[in-house]
Amino acid sequence: MIGIRADLTEQDLPEVYYSIQDYSSSNARWCPGCGDHAILTAVQKLCREKQLPPEKTVFVSGIGCSSRFPHYMKTYGFHGLHGRAFPVAEGVKFRRPDLDVFVVTGDGDCCSIGAGHWVHAVRYNMYMVALLFDNEIYGLTKKQTSPTSPKGTFSNTHPKGSVLPPLNPIQSTLGFANVSFVAQTADWHPAHLYATIKKAHEHPGFSFVRILQRCPVWMNHGFSQAVAKDNSVTLLDHANGIELDPQVRKSFKQVIQHDPSDILKAREYAELEDSLPLGLFYQNTEAERYDEYGAHNLHMPVKERLSELNGLLDRYAI
Ligand SMILES: Cc1ncc(C[n+]2csc(CCOP(=O)(O)OP(=O)(O)O)c2C)c(N)n1
Ligand code: SF4
Ligand SMILES: [Mg+2]
Q1: pLDDT grade for 19, boundaries at 50, 70 and 90
Q2: Which ligand ends up closest to the CA of 136?
Q3: Strands across the sheet with 76-79, in order?
Q4: 76-116 per-position pLDDT tens digit
């Protein structure tokens, strides 16, 4: 018979240390050279550095190559419906504010079919990290034009080249109500990628991170200029911005000092086209958070909760 040792206290339990293996599930099935691999590595590293308990961490995604992400994390996960990652994540956070919630979404998933949810996820400002893997194409379904595809992109839906100007996810997010954190990074800058995700995770609210992500299979020209030429990327730097090792900061040839509390300047820099801006565009830690309203009755006794619910329902009786 197994008995419970009454003399043992919490201090007597062995200390748990989570290693990268504790966060890695099966081998990722993305193509060789896909930027998603680098993002997975950065996220697993963050989980280890922060020692996030895997049973208290949730990755929610929609549908797409990027949305396969939860399968490769040994945490909780929800691989949902195309464009619907945000409402699922909001439901999780609303009732379980103790969980660390991450959303993984693609440019099609977020900016096309899921665009309505994107607007309100920003406005709700619930405490979670949203990672937009932007490869400027529909990857999983083999090359259709996405809302972020550059004008003139040849694809299965536009064999003669796409005709509309692309949507800029940073510019759009900076225009949504109650926006509180907007950053941009790139899969080919591992130190910047890691530091950005870390800053996003520390933000008390909804942090939106657009990650420029290479898809060498269907978008092999994507970001090639920026990868090849140092002057195609500009670092937005500031003491309150993304924290970088001085050696890493030095590797950026073009640097602009940008105070992330200045939303007007942030909108201006979001429009930079010749040189892709990487860094923290905007942060406001004081914005209203909707998840705080969901947690108000969590510790209420069941009887009290039921009577409150009945009272509410009575108000709507016809
Ligand atoms: C309701 C619905 N419409 C269309 C699809 C087909 N579909 C699956 S993934 C996808 C686009 C994925 O592109 P993106 O979100 O950019 O992700 P990526 O594969 O590039 O990472 C589409 C149109 C679907 N699964 N469900
Ligand atoms: S198709 Fe593109 S986005 Fe999808 S796994 Fe392959 S390289 Fe990555
Ligand atoms: Mg895509």
Answers
A1: very high
A2: 3
A3: 76-79, 57-61, 100-106, 128-134, 206-212, 181-186, 276-283, 233-237, 254-257
A4: 999 999 999 999 999 999 989 999 999 999 999 999 999 99
Ligand 2 pocket by C-beta < 6 Å: which residues? 30-31, 34, 36, 65, 135, 139, 215-218
**Ligand 2 pocket, mutate which of 217, 221, 223 (most atoms under 8 A from CB):** 217
pTM: 0.93
Cα angle, residue 174 at apex, residues 42 and 52 outer, rounded to 5°: 30
Q: What are phi and psi of 163, to 5 degrees?
A: -110, -20
Ligand located closest to 72 CA: 2
User: What is the CA(250)–ligand 3 centre distance, in A?
Assistant: 31
Q: How many residues does the chain have?
A: 318
Spatial distance between the Cα atoms of 223 and 300, rounded to a whole number of angstroms: 52
Q: Which domains does the chain have, with CATH numbers?
A: 13-315 (3.40.50.970)
Q: Which residue has the higher pLDDT, 173 or 13?
A: 173
Determine contact, residues 258/221, Cβ cutoff 8 Å: no
The rounded Å distance from CA 158 to ligand 2 centre is: 19
DSSP 3-state of 202:
helix
pLDDT bracket for residue 1 (50, 70, 90): very low
Identify the band that residue 5 occupies on the pLDDT scale cut at 50, 70 and 90.
low
DSSP code per residue over 107-151 = HHIIIIITHHHHHHHHHHT-SEEEEEEE-SSBTTTT-B--TTSPT
CA of 316 relative to ligand 1 center, distance in Å: 40
Q: In this predicted model, what pLDDT tens digit does every residue of 263-276 receive, in sequence order?
A: 999 999 999 988 99
Report the pLDDT value the prediction gives residue 4, as an integer from 0 to 100. Answer: 60
